[in-house]
Amino acid sequence: MAKNYEFHFQEGFAGETVTVAVDGQTRVSFKARTRLQTGLARIESLQLDPGQTVAIAVPELALHQTYRVAEGDRWITINLVGGALVVRPAQASPGYL
Fold this sequence. Notes:
CATH architecture: Sandwich
Number of domains: 1
Strand order of the largest sheet: 4-1-7-8
């Protein structure tokens, strides 16, 4: 059964295009720019079935990462660190000021 997953694009984004695809179909494409005051670029909510794989790409930087959502996930953070996408689940809702 599908449930809502929040993808939090956080640190390191400076206006690059980000695409988010599920099962080979692009669900969303946007320009990500981290707000220095909050550490947040964007939050995307997706309805997914546990076990589905999400592909996140930053074509301008030739970066691509996949993440398979689990039943216990709810929040997934994405950071651009040292020229790589770091995707990991969060135990609690990330907070921003």
